[in-house]
Amino acid sequence: MSGLSLSISIGASLALLTACGDDAARSRWIALDAEAPALEIRPDEWNAWAATFGCVVRVDEHAAAPPITFEWTLEGSDWEQAGTGIWSVPLPEVPGFSGARGGIRELGFGEASFPYEAIEFAKDLTGGCFGTIGKDLLLKLDPEDSVPSQLSYTEFIPRGNRNTGVWRTSVGNVTGAGLPVWPGERWSIQTPIPSESALRFYLAARGTEEGVTTGGEIQAAIHLNGEEIWRHVRKDGRRADAWHTVSLPGAGGDSNTLEFTIAGARTLTAFFDPAIGPGEPERLDDSRRPNVILFLADTFRADNLSAYGGAPDVTPFLNRLAEASVLFERSWSTSSWTLPAQASLFSSLQPPQHGAELDWLVLSRSLTTLAEVLHRNGYRTGAVTDSNFISAKFNFDQGFQWFHETDKSEGWSLNETLKNADAFLGSGDGRPTFLFVHTYRTHEPYRVGEEESPKEARRYLVDVFKQAKEGATVDRFEVAAGLIELYRKGASDLDRKLERWVERLRRDPEWNRTYFVFTSDHGEAFYEHKRVGHRGPLWEETLRIPLFIHGHGLPPARRAGAASLVDLAPTIAALTGVGIPPPWQGSNLLTRAGDRPIYGFCGDPKALEVAIIEGDHKVRAPYAALEEFRVHGAYDLSTDPMEKANLAGQQGWPSDLLPTHYSHIAELLRAIVPAESLPESAMDDKSLRILRELGYAGD
Predict the structure, then answer these.
(1) Which residue ranges form the domains of the chain, and what is each CATH number?
(2) pTM of this structure
(3) Is residue 569 within 8 Å of 363, Cβ to Cβ?
(4) 520-540 mean pLDDT
């Protein structure tokens, strides 16, 4: 296979990162950022390779960041009928490229085209549209129509974008700032290099669904001023992606040439978060800003911790850590499910304000997130997530220089998540670090034991369904009690693994200048109000969350004032000494005096409602009844924490709370930015299946 001989000279944007307090220290870090290159791809060489897959390669040479386009001609006779009006053909693919994040598929004939539709089942396909399921390409026509004699199927594979002012790309599990160098290419950057420096980056290559590259090894090399200083052979497999540190011997001065090259198997490849920094960062003084590790356990009830009324044997390590931390005794989410709640955490806005309230809406890139604020102030930003909603497709990568996600199809493992977190922390270059860790460890399906197996939960549910089918009376409260026992086992396993991880972190001197924040995005219901799971009505079992901050000189304390997820970004900003941008709504929990009201929102069309909590008083009101000041739930949480005695309609606070807060609620219901929809091309049958299995989509 002949390689593409391509030299791209980049007018590099060399960002001097402001991590420390003086100009000399600031100049020690240089992020290698690049404008979208003017590509000079030679399609003839690519076509010789792509012919193996029955396609041709096209490149828009006039685009600022042109995608590679693979195009197939599909004969009408190749299609087989797969149902009434549904036709099927094997899905054309180029291994290592097809299905890449941000890619776009098109199907048409002549001047006509069929819209793409993300589907999980063939029956869901709309007439006149096409979709994919597994290895099949499907097209739905009117029953009396036949497939045109010849169709053109096209797949666009982008290099990335510059939506946030830097060149960002995606390869496999990773999205972030980087240089999308593909096999056969050479990228050259002119840059100053301080003496005694090193270059650090994360090398990634995209594999097939089986996790292997197509055609063998990837060879990566770096040249400094014409001399090779580093070469690496990356073996097959997605776990071969790794951080690297390359010493820059003999470098110094304002004009040096760094060349990045990739050779070998053709697939998407990139150097992520490339930055020049001190060769020995541990020699730096402690004048820089503190590190922050934000650990979010998705679907983690507050009462998994004894501080919130839980049994002490469920999470003994977290209980001890919370006792040595600043713990917020009365903490609430902004919603009852993942997407709007975590969007609130990062944007410091209520769900109606940021707009990411439904399955097909995303966190707007026009908003300023916590990660963006910290990165602009010299932080090295990284995230390790369990994907799905907390993914690049929903724009949660913004502000993170390295955003690693693992979806359910790859097999969730908290141990693997923490290994990826360790890899990011271990590649530090002396800048302060912000690391976000997200895990679905306690999310449905409830997984038990060190191996996180869902088998026990499946057997339990199969037995329940079998009893019901045989006519036995099934007590739903007993079923819920069995489910919460499985759920608590998952919380206990999270506790054990987190203890091992934190103990490793404590052995690193960096721990002494690190804030560790533990929280969740929502809880989980177990038939307290005739519901199991989350999302929907804003009951306490789904709205209450744990929240504590540990370390870096914070004396242990318990704070009784009300806390919301919108407060977390401003609190972390204050701890790190960076400014709070408009239009953030929260405030610093460590300095705020007194109490304040809490608001929760459910934007689900099946349960549109708002919750208002002031002191121990709580009301819930449907959106449609706000102007009438009509609530459908009012509870005194001091005497009725389980919300069993509905006081709606009574005089006094049950009737006064909504009118008192109505004008502010009306303001919060107005969007700060227009809601942004998830592109149809971002979803496929696998994504829809995973969301359905998590309880978020499907029938």
Answers:
(1) 6-32+167-283 (2.60.120), 49-157 (no CATH), 293-428+436-441+495-607+669-693 (3.40.720.10)
(2) 0.93
(3) no
(4) 95
